[in-house]
Amino acid sequence: MSPAKATGWPALAVTLLAACSHGCGPAAATGPAQPLDFSHKLHAGDYQIECLYCHSGARRSTAAGIPSVQLCMGCHRMVATSKPEIARLAGYWEKKTPIRWTRVVKQPDYVFFNHRPHIAKEIACQECHGPIQTMAEVRLDHKLNMDRCVGCHRQKGAPVDCYVCHR
What we know:
Number of strands: 0
Helix content: 40-55%
Number of helices: 9
Structural class: mainly alpha
Order of helices and strands: HHHHHHHHH
């Protein structure tokens, strides 16, 4: 039966498989434009700042979260203060305005993802996000799709029931 003629639960499964096999977000050579130049290569790579220091929400939430201006200024009140991008960061701090970062990774609405169990199992952020510590500009360097997730779950002995990701 073709997907166009399928009905009910099988139709939903066919639709989900077709949509996810194409990838949830294209692989990109460069990331989206951001309000400030921020280098993960510098922070996570050269200075080896742990991902969870800035994205602490991943320990306890579905979303990793974006660091606050306050967290950034914790270091940048004293570090690299003469650099133009840090001066721009300080401008956000002085105005008490959050930085409106452009989202790089977004799962479709029909996909449920929770960072917390992945962090608890000590799965490296790079497993899904790629070599972030080498990126001066954040980009998704591979597709996040159902095949990739199910393959990883099978490899690690994690559940592959539909409900795990589709609630």
